[in-house]
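Sorry to interrupt, but I need a hand with the structure work. Leave the record below and I will have a look:
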Amino acid sequence: MAVWAIIENKNEILLIKRSESTSISGQWCFPGGGIKHAESPESACVREAKEEVGLNIEILEFLMEYEGEYFYKCCIVDNDHEITLKLNECDSYSWVQPKYILSLGIIMDLKKVYMVLNSMGYQIELNDEARNIIS
């Protein structure tokens, strides 16, 4: 089971690029990861955001559960936020308007990302390859 934090700030969402030391290197995704034994999905979401990008977040809304993965809409708690990457897990980040996420490169689990962002009312500009993946 995994959790993912969809962190919004000024009409943009935060995506991280997985580092070369991971099995999904080079792919972009929301901050998140595995749920530890006896940990609630909500606690795991907050912990993972702090570990991966150094942000204190607040969960605003449970968005969906899909195939054992939990997605949460979140916001940053600190006004003076500074992203600090956990380099063995991610080597880059980007704040991006959701409709332009494909401009970053390969999106991990694009179909799930599309479903989540669509449930939040966002439209993504899809190319032919992306249309094939989500259909």
